[in-house]
Amino acid sequence: MSSELFNLNGRVAVVMGGTSGIGRTMALGLAEAGADVVATGRREELVNAVADDIEQRGRKALRRSSDVQSRESIDALRGAVLKEFGRIDILLNAAGQIFRKPTHLVTEAEWNKLMDVNVTGMLRSCQSFYEPLVESGRGRVINIASLNSFVSLLEVAPYAASKGAVLSLTRSLAVEWAPRGVNVNAIAPGVFRTELNSGLLDGTGRGRELLMRTPMKRFGNVLELTGAAILLASDAASYITGQCLTVDGGFLASGVNQ
Ligand SMILES: NC(=O)c1ccc[n+]([C@@H]2O[C@H](COP(=O)([O-])OP(=O)(O)OC[C@H]3O[C@@H](n4cnc5c(N)ncnc54)[C@H](OP(=O)(O)O)[C@@H]3O)[C@@H](O)[C@H]2O)c1
Question: Which atom of ligand 1 is nearest to the CA of 24?
Fold first, then answer.
């Protein structure tokens, strides 16, 4: 009975930014829970590789690259998924970028690009997939937020603003779409070493400080995010919407921890 609550058999998931790091791990987790999964991003070779991994888990996949900066490419992806599978039940938005720079030196072009990927890209995806998610009858949106949605991390102001907006967009859509049967939640990962942040973490004072501030005294393993994604995609979360689930080894709960 309880395992049925987390069973995603028969569902179709689309994972934007599902070809690397957190999105890739969550895409494979959704497949292991029973979903057919379309994991996408810009780089075709990564799209093909993650599709192979999904199929190795006995689920169906679709090899289709996309760019969240292009509404046309997202709409084309939606069309291809509907043609192949006939439905879309879960949209997981993990596409994201970051850069570190003192805020007084950040150009408007840099700011706009980051916001366009991290926030407007998420909005484009949510808008494009809205109708099929409603038609699903139990549509789910899972947006990837950040510790930076809640607290400042030095010299990543555009990223922080984008992740604050992710949380706000999550709440707004949750309220608007609840009457249509679509649950919209966020997951805020703590620090997980991936392609996105390895340059910021490896051998740096910042990396050491983040560890010091994490009560568990280690970075997360991306596999430790799988359960949160499956939960929010599943029937176990049928009455959860507008929430942000933080998976951070205790970081946000911590004041002084030594
Ligand atoms: N790692 C952490 O500790 C951490 C903590 C909190 C939140 N997050 C968030 O988690 C999400 C995933 O990050 P990650 O650490 O897993 O980074 P990652 O390994 O660099 O993965 C980023 C993913 O997004 C895709 N992507 C980037 N720009 C895109 C675009 N314009 N259109 C479509 N896809 C795009 C990438 O594929 P292509 O480059 O091929 O397009 C890749 O699949 C991000 O939203 C990030 O902000 C990460």
Answer: 43
Distance (angstroms) between ligand 1 centre and the Cα of 1 equals 35
pLDDT score recorded for residue 51: 98
Classify residue 253 by burial, with Cβ atoms within 10 Å: 0-12, 13-18, 19+. Answer: exposed
CA of 8 to the centre of ligand 1 (A): 24
Can you list the residues of the chain whose pLDDT is less than 50?
A: none
Give the ligand 1 atom nearest the CA of 192: 3
Catalytic annotation present for 130: no
pLDDT at position 231 is 98
Contact 151, 252 (CB under 8 A): yes
The angle at the Cα of 166, spanning 161 to 167, to the nearest 5 degrees, equals 100
Q: Of the candidates 183, 146, 182, 139, which has an alpha carbon nearest to the alpha carbon of residue 162? A: 146
Q: How far is the CA of 21 from the centre of ligand 1 (A)?
A: 7
